[in-house]
Amino acid sequence: MNSETKLIRTQVPRSANREHSVPLYFTSSYLFDDADHMADLFNDEADGFIYSRYSNPNVDEFVQKVADLEGTETGWATATGMAAIFTTFGALLSSGDEILSSRSVFGSTHKLFTEILPKWGIQTKYVPFDNLDIWEEAISPNTKILYLETPTNPGLDIIDLRKAGEIAKKHNLIFVVDNCFATPINQQPAKFGADLIIHSATKYFDGQGRAMGGIILGSAQLIDQIQAFARHTGPALSPFNAWTLSKSLELLPLRIEKHNQNALEIAQRLENHPSVEWVKYPFLPSHPQYEIAKSQMNGGGGLVTFEIKGGIANGKKFLNALQMLSLSANLGDSRSIATHPASTTHSKLTEEDRLLVGITPGLIRISVGLEHVNDIWADIEQALG
Ligand SMILES: *Cc1c(COP(=O)(O)O)cnc(C)c1O
User: Fold this and answer.
1) Global pTM value
2) Which of 249, 284, 305 delimits the end of a domain?
């Protein structure tokens, strides 16, 4: 089957009620037939459900769909994207191990690297996103994981997955990619050697700003290690959120196609506006890594960033003038959302640190939604005015 079909037709076995749409398995535990069945399940000698912290039919269905999309053997679902990221490091690393990471990572991932993991003796070395030769020099005998996001947040820089995959392979590192911004519709890191792929399902997988969730995809061998850790530390995805997310995935290919179209159109219109200093969108020929983007992505995605003339003051003015676009901390929603990182998510960083990760004073990030493109543009244009 093609991937669009699998997303729609993958379903846990029907119950005796012969429901068409999958039911919600809203249960913490499951019944055992008898004492022997119970013993066999606990000793891994039978397949079946025991307790929803371990597994649940709705969660299994969600995992199966995303693993099919990413082209990996299997996966493990979590309550949030951050739970997926923390679980990955918690399961695979020990005191003394090092992570080599691109400097441009999600804000909470940065906190994890700089403040939380060091408590257990796990250190992270940051490398610039655009010079992979430096990456090789930074690898030490203790380096275990190569970690990156592409496109990056909020700068929308593109990292060469092919090259990063080669470096990881050569030095025997576990190659981990946060693929949240691209989604597997636009980019499949496993094709470039990624061993584990992480998503915040809160974003495009849900797509309507409702349910939180996360997922880690990879080989059965790595996911077994993650499962062994997660079963006993408890970051499980709730059945209700798994059911919601699994339903949302049926429309993911259609939604991403439209996000790609709308975002490209908005990026092009912004590029021709006199109040805009520059625009960054992976599929605009003016993007510094346009060729790499074209070689590893099927579409440019739904996020556009641009630099408004007049710095922080005009960035704030622009947000205050918007009438339809939402001011919200989310992305990947059907509703378009605008943020100004320098005065909000990254305001606690020094200006120098912000510039290191590509956050200039007037940088605006738009998560382009599914409204009519002319209505999205009309609001942006009047606010720029
Ligand atoms: C939102 C996000 C996360 C964290 O996901 P949550 O579901 O909010 O925990 C991680 N990485 C990226 C790139 C994100 O955008």
Assistant:
1) 0.96
2) 249
